[in-house]
Design goal:
Oligomer: single chain
Distance between the termini: 21 Å
Radius of gyration: 21 Å
Strand content: 15-25%
CATH topology of the largest domain: Aspartate Aminotransferase, domain 2
CATH architecture of the largest domain: 3-Layer(aba) Sandwich
Shape: globular
Number of strands: 14
CATH class of the largest domain: Alpha Beta
Number of domains: 2
Order of helices and strands: HHHEHEHEHEHEEEEEHEEHHEEHHEH
Low-confidence stretches: none
């Protein structure tokens, strides 16, 4: 796609994620599924939700899928099911979305925020080991931007120390991790519990809020399901304090349609990422997304690092060119006002550096060649000025 002549600015507005174009390609099927739910008037639970849970279970190769209302609830319910006590410590990446640590604090647990790898944005066993104390009871592993963390080392360490693991693969659903010991497994299925979000912009997104929880443990699955449904395993009989977290039938019907296309969506995103890589490889100030050998990358985000200190200038330039760009994430969690009472971390060098350098460009499965050419041209224009 390396261009020798100028590409005209696309007539349509460039989107970080083009949900409308994606919808239009599956409109007939989506509309039909939604109409079925409306005709049935079964809006909570029912066949569509059960069908989606079964389909996702088959796709992931896990024993149990518990749908819920959103990805934040999925994390909270996972922690609730592990029987942790007030003050117990949960290790969590410092470079992640707020929900990952938010639920820890809501439950009276202590978030222990650790640094991440500069190349992959993810945690590893060595970083986890340095944070373990006698109070450590769980580790939340976030597969950020679409690629798995180094799970072999983390799972081995957790087993040695008797610590629970939770995989948050909201940004990496569809990715595959190849373990030295257990072979290839889908992300979200390797830890004690896996969680995900179906926020609309995710690789597998619904048209509202939605989430799910995964486990291979029968006893734990029953508890997760009970907690998500007001703590009841039988109607009006409440065994534990739970919450109300349900995936509605319309969202399940939409997800059933999109799940069949998830691998294709991920492959199309990877093609876009490859073209970006190819066209940005000669820009010294940009560091391309790193891939690890034992994980596929589904590119929920295409995130570069700009090392010349001019990130805001690049964003302003792209905005003038009509190209959106995002910063995920501009402020470390431990510097957020909300977490001041919960953490004593004040500086993690890699996280601090990433917050100053990262920039994400538009990427989605409906990216037109002309649109990507224009984005690439706009980036080159900045560096060639």
């Amino acid at each position: 796609m390396k261009h020798s002549s100028l590409v005209q600015k696309p007539e349509e507005q460039i989107q970080m994620v083009d949900l409308k174009s994606q919808y239009l390609t599956i409109k007939t099927e989506i509309d039909g599924e939604i109409q079925e739910v409306l005709d049935s008037t079964r809006f909570i639970g029912g066949n569509k939700v059960n069908e989606f849970a079964d389909n996702l279970k088959t796709y992931l190769g896990t024993q149990h899928v518990i749908p819920c209302a959103n990805g934040t609830d999925a994390l909270q319910i996972a922690l609730m099911a592990l029987g942790l006590e007030k003050g117990d410590e949960v290790i969590v990446p410092s470079f992640t979305y707020v929900a990952t640590a938010e639920v820890i604090c809501l439950l009276g647990l202590k978030p222990v925020m650790i640094d991440v790898e500069y190349g992959t944005f993810n945690i590893n066993a060595e970083l986890v080991l340095n944070a373990i104390t006698p109070k450590t009871k769980a580790i939340i592993v976030v597969h950020l931007f679409g690629q798995c963390s180094e799970m072999d080392g983390i799972l081995k360490l957790a087993k040695e120390k008797g610590i629970f693991t939770i995989e948050d693969h909201a940004q990496a659903i569809g990715s595959v991790y190849t373990s030295e010991d257990t072979g290839s497994k889908k992300s979200g299925t390797m830890a004690t519990i896996g969680t995900t979000s179906f926020f609309p912009s995710k690789n597998l997104g619904c048209y509202g809020d939605g989430g799910a929880i995964f486990t291979n443990d029968d006893v734990l699955a029953a508890k997760l399901k009970m907690i998500a449904n007001h703590g009841q395993e039988k109607k009006y009989y409440h065994s534990v304090i739970g919450c109300n977290s349900r995936l509605d039938a319309i969202q399940a019907a939409i997800l059933n349609v999109k799940l069949k296309r998830l691998d294709t969506y991920c492959q199309e995103r990877a093609k876009v990422a490859y073209e970006y890589d190819r066209n940005f490889a000669d820009i010294e100030e940009l560091i391309l997304p790193e891939r690890i050998e034992n994980s596929t990358h589904v590119f929920h985000q295409y995130t570069l690092k700009l090392v010349n200190g001019r990130r805001n200038d690049l964003i302003d330039h792209l905005k003038k060119e009509g190209v959106p760009a995002m910063i995920y994430y501009p402020v470390p969690l431990y510097k957020q006002k909300a977490f001041a009472p919960f953490t004593d971390v004040d500086n993690l060098s890699t996280t601090e550096q990433l917050c100053k350098e990262v920039i994400s460009l538009p990427i989605h499965s409906e990216m037109k060649e002309q649109v990507q050419e224009y984005i690439i041209q706009s980036v080159h224009k900045f560096f060639n000025a």
